[in-house]
Every structure is written in structure tokens, then in C-alpha cells.
From TrEMBL:
UniProt xrefs under CDD domains: EpsO_like (cd06438)
Single GO molecular function: glycosyltransferase activity
Domain of life: Bacteria
Protein name, UniProt field: Glycosyltransferase
Keywords recorded for this protein, A-Z: Glycosyltransferase, Membrane, Transferase, Transmembrane, Transmembrane helix
Native organism: Bifidobacterium aerophilum
InterPro entries membership: Nucleotide-diphossugar_trans
Transmembrane segments: 6-32, 297-322, 342-360, 372-395
């Protein structure tokens, strides 16, 4: 039928363009000189914003990382919102000299709402005016000791919004944590670095990013509450014409889920959040791409495009039409060969991408060669699990739930 043919053409175009762009980014990152920033005076004042829910086991590690930076500690203030905590997170943070605001709201749940509450309190008291920019971290993060010094260079080079290199503290725990960690390292090394070289905006991850006081004032604090509030913030910033920078010399270490159940739940929320952001921001991004000839808008339209959902819908429609007699069973059975070939190609490509990531970033990855070889083989399993996750995301009412951290 014509409808199936149109879907096939659409998916082929989007898939080909997306893969070609990803390949271009890999080539650029391998051969182009990384963007670096000149030394800058360490005289700007920064506020660190942390949303923490029952994080007494890990929050001390992050605070210690911030206190021992090469950047002057007197110019960094830590503000923590203890969000619906029933442990000693607030007490631990206060004992370490942090500004702590407690929040109890069982209806508006999620990091976005917590950040809104925190910045609203800071704006109401006027204390936010004393800061040049705001950093956002998760309670389980750890930082290289030069993190603030390097981000300060990029900030003073003119970027109003910045993201950083995202590594992992537990890549070698098992195949689940390694899958997530390699994905984030790949994004930093290949995508963010190449976007900087091309002059595009980068994608702000859920943690390890910074925005200026000007951006905060424009947004009247923090106004992003979708399931992927970081992606929502990115799209809103791109639509405002901001260029989001990437500081590859500022390294943040994140803790990844180690159980498949936790990973599934987290990625279900991300997948649902991507659909939400595409719904609210996709049309505006496409309009900006056409009217302003903004390649960043093209880039993020490809990022948001629910290709996996389209593939699932296309397959389901094919079999439904066969049941109804609109198309032949033979054509659907024949199409299985194409799907099988695509899956095999995807598996080989993902193993190659994982291997390349490990090779070029070996100095930043703490695992044995034997472990890394096993994780190259398991990476496609981790990634292909996004297929059922994407299917569930179409119907699920995913909610924000905390990830347990071991400290």
C-alpha cells in the first residue's frame, strides 16, 4: 500500500541522514583538533545546585570534590534541595557547610520541580544575584579537581550554557553499567566535540552543566518539568538562539545503574521524555531549521525523531494490513529478511562503535582489557533493549523515581 511505501521512504531518509551525520561526527572527532579555551582569571562566583533525594551515602563525596577544586573555594557556594528526603541527606550537607532547603511535595515529583523550588527561594531572597552562573550536579557525581577551573575558562570565553565530559565511576561493575557509561562517553568524545568544531549547539546532559545568571533570569529560575528536563532545557535554549558549548577538559564522573531493572526504569523515563519533548518542541525546531537555516535545529530534530517508534509502528501496520488482506503475507515474510539484515548490521555497528570509543578513550576508562572486550560484545544487547523500552514508552505513564546509589 502507498501508506507503507511512504513510511518506508520516510524511515530510509531519516535513518540514512542520521547515520551519515553520526559517522561524520566520529570522523571529525578523530581527526580535528579539539576545541580548547584560553586561561582566564578565576574571579567569577558560582552557585552549585544539587537536587538530592535520600542521598546521605553519596552526597559527602560530591561536596568533598567541590571543596578541593583548584578553583578558589570561597567563590563556590553549594545549594542543596533535600527533596522529599526521609534520611539524613539534609543533615550531612549542613554539617559540611552547604546551604540546604528542604522540600516536601508528593504531587510534583522530579528533579525539575526540585530545581524550580530551589531557585525560586534563591530568587525571592535576592541571593541569586551574587552569582555569575549556576552549576547543576546529581548527588552521586564526582569531579576532576580541575573541573571548575576548566569550565570557568569556557564560560569566560563567552558561552552562556556549557556541558562537560561525562565519564563513569562504575563502568566496570557489569554489562549494564558499562553499556550506559560507554554511551555517555561516546556522546562526549564523538558528538559534543564534533558539534563544537562544526559550530553547533551541544546537548546538555542530566548533570554536569552550567548556565549563566542571564539565562536563569530569562527563564525566571527553572521552568522545565518534563520527564527529561535536561533535554527540554536544551531545546528551549536552542530555540532562543543560544549556542550551548562543550568543555571536554572538565571531567565529571557519574554512577550508572547496575541492575537491569533499574536501567530499564531509567531508560523508560528517558524514552517517554524524548516523546514528550518531540511533541512540544519538534514542530518549533523544524520551523527554526527552515526559517533560520540553523543546523543545530536540524541536528536536534534528528536527535528527537522517534525513529524506533516509527519502526515499531511500521512493522505493526505491515502485519495488520496483511491480516486484513490489504497486502500479501508473502511481502511481509519477505520483509523479515530486510529487518533481520538491519538488526545484524546494527549489532556489528554497535560493537564497532563501543570498541572505537574504548580505543580512543582508553586512558579515561578504568577497566581491564578482558572486561572491556566483554563489554564490547554486550553493548549491542544493552542498546537493542531500547526496542521493547521504546514500545512500552508509547503506552506507559513513566514517572520519575530515584536510582539507588551505593556510595
Amino acid at each position: 500500500m502507498a501508506l507503507l511505501s511512504i513510511l518506508d521512504i520516510l524511515m530510509t531518509i531519516v535513518g540514512t541522514v542520521g547515520i551519515a551525520y553520526q559517522a561524520l561526527c566520529v570522523v571529525i572527532s578523530l581527526f580535528a583538533k579539539p576545541i580548547t579555551f584560553p586561561d582566564a582569571p578565576m574571579d567569577r562566583r558560582y552557585a552549585v545546585l544539587i537536587s538530592a533525594r535520600n542521598e546521605e551515602n553519596v552526597i559527602g563525596n560530591l561536596i568533598e570534590c567541590i571543596r578541593t577544586q583548584t578553583y578558589p573555594s570561597e567563590l563556590i557556594d553549594i545549594w542543596l534541595v533535600a527533596d522529599n528526603c526521609d534520611d539524613h541527606t539534609a543533615d550531612v550537607a549542613r554539617a559540611k557547610g552547604c546551604h540546604v532547603i528542604e522540600r516536601f511535595n508528593k504531587e510534583l515529583i522530579g528533579k525539575g520541580y526540585a530545581l524550580t523550588y530551589l531557585l525560586d527561594r534563591m530568587n525571592e531572597s535576592g541571593v541569586s544575584d551574587q552569582y555569575d552562573a549556576f552549576f547543576v550536579f546529581d548527588a552521586d557525581n564526582r569531579l576532576d579537581r580541575h573541573y571548575f577551573e576548566e569550565m570557568n575558562k569556557a564560560f569566560q570565553a563567552g558561552f552562556k550554557i556549557l556541558t562537560s565530559y561525562r565519564n563513569s565511576v562504575n563502568l566496570s561493575d557489569n554489562w549494564v553499567s558499562s553499556g550506559s557509561a560507554l554511551w555517555f562517553i561516546r556522546e562526549s568524545r564523538f558528538l559534543s566535540a564534533s558539534r563544537m568544531w562544526l559550530g553547533n549547539s551541544c546537548h546538555v546532559g542530566g548533570t554536569g552543566f552550567m548556565f549563566s545568571r542571564e539565562v536563569m533570569k530569562r527563564n525566571n529560575g527553572w521552568k522545565f518539568h518534563l520527564l527529561t528536563e535536561d533535554l527540554e532545557f536544551t531545546m528551549d535554549s536552542v530555540l532562543h538562539g543560544d549556542r550551548i558549548g562543550y568543555c571536554g577538559t572538565a571531567m565529571l564522573y557519574d554512577e550508572q545503574p547496575v541492575s537491569f531493572q533499574q536501567s530499564w526504569r531509567q531508560r523508560l523515563r528517558w524514552s517517554k521524555g524524548f516523546l514528550q519533548v518531540f511533541r512540544y518542541y519538534g514542530p518549533a525546531l523544524i520551523k527554526r531549521a527552515v526559517r533560520e537555516r540553523d543546523f543545530s535545529a536540524v541536528d536536534f530534530t534528528l536527535l528527537l525523531c522517534p525513529f524506533m517508534v516509527l519502526a515499531i509502528i511500521r512493522m505493526a501496520m505491515g502485519w495488520l494490513f496483511a491480516v486484513c488482506g490489504f497486502v500479501s503475507w508473502q511481502s511481509q515474510i519477505a520483509s523479515l529478511g530486510g529487518w533481520t539484515s538491519s538488526i545484524v548490521t546494527a549489532i556489528v555497528t554497535m560493537m564497532a562503535l563501543a570498541a572505537l570509543t574504548i580505543i580512543v578513550e582508553r586512558d579515561h576508562i578504568g577497566a581491564t582489557n578482558k572486561e572491556l572486550f566483554a563489554y564490547v560484545l554486550s553493548f549491542p544487547i544493552y542498546m537493542l533493549s531500547y526496542v521493547p523500552i521504546s514500545f512500552q514508552a508509547i503506552f506507559a505513564k513513566a514517572q520519575w523515581k530515584p536510582i539507588e546509589h551505593k556510595g
